[in-house]
Amino acid sequence: AGVAAVLLKPFLGHRTAWHYHGTRIPLPPQKRNEAHFLTRLVRYKLVEILHFIFLSQTDIIFVTTSESKQQLMTEFTFLAHKEIVVVPNGVNHDMFKPVSSRVKKILRVKYALPPKSLVILSSARLEPKKGIKSLIKVMEYLPKSLHPYLLIAHPRLMTPDELVYKKQLLKLVKKKDLSQYIIWLEATKNIFFVGLKCQDIFKGVATN
Question: Which end of the chain is more exposed for a tag (fewer CB within 10 A), N or C?
Answer without folding.
Answer: N
